Structure prediction request, 285 residues.
Amino acid sequence: MPLPTFIISGAPKSGTSSLWSYVRQHPNVFMPDPKEIGFFDYNYGKGVEWYRKKFRGHDGEEAVGEATPWYMCDDRAGWVPERMYEMEPDLRLVFILRDPVDRAHSNFWDNFRNGEIPFTTTISEFIRKSENESHTVIKCGHYYKHLRRFEEYFDREQFLILLHEEFCRDPVATVQRVYDFLEVDPSFVPDTESSVRVTNGFRCLGALRAVNRLFTPLGPVAGGTPLTWLWRRLPHFRYVFWQEGSRPPELSARDRAYLEDLYAEPNAQLSGYLDQDLSHWKGMT
Prediction:
């Protein structure tokens, strides 16, 4: 069984699931299911042979890869890029990036919905707390810093950097750019009609927070409040409060302005690095 020749990563909530789904349709590309193996960060201790077995379905495809968005944002002493380089110095890296303000907003509600952020916390409070600067919701938007960390080990020519808005506007052309980068037939047309991830919003956020207040006096349990404990262990319980296909609450103008200011310098650095105009992201100096 082979090891990867390419990796798809990028910022969480930037379209990596859809990109993975479309790229793997190519007859000369093999990517295992499920997505997000996470070998180079939290599963590294399981060893290369454990990782190799994840590709057991390989049937001679020339391009072999996987997709784990967290690889880009894991900045612990450069572990991820160093580990990748030690395994395969010629690895090709595909990154997909989204306007960091929109990405942070989406990531907050994803974490909130999964019970990883307290139900009493508002996004306004969360983004302004200094202790949250190292939280993935905030830190993953510092794209320039993350990409430069990979460039300590890999040549820039080994990167393909995509923008989420271009992917949404023309998914077929974007995926064909990936095929060309991987040196497989770029004329193949993937089926991009269906979205892999369904957006989930809340039926009544106020009711969720009211129920949380009722549960809280029962005392803390492992992993948070009693409601959080139920939330994490009984997935169907969540559907009382959320609705598939709906959108999370809008980001207020005040919070958007705060995040645009927070990301202004990193966005300017990224714009120079890519030699690409990112002024449509708003938070630019």
Summary: The mean pLDDT is 86. DSSP finds 14 helices and seven strands in the chain. The beta strands are 6-10, 29-30, 63-67, 92-97, 159-163, 200-202, 242-244.
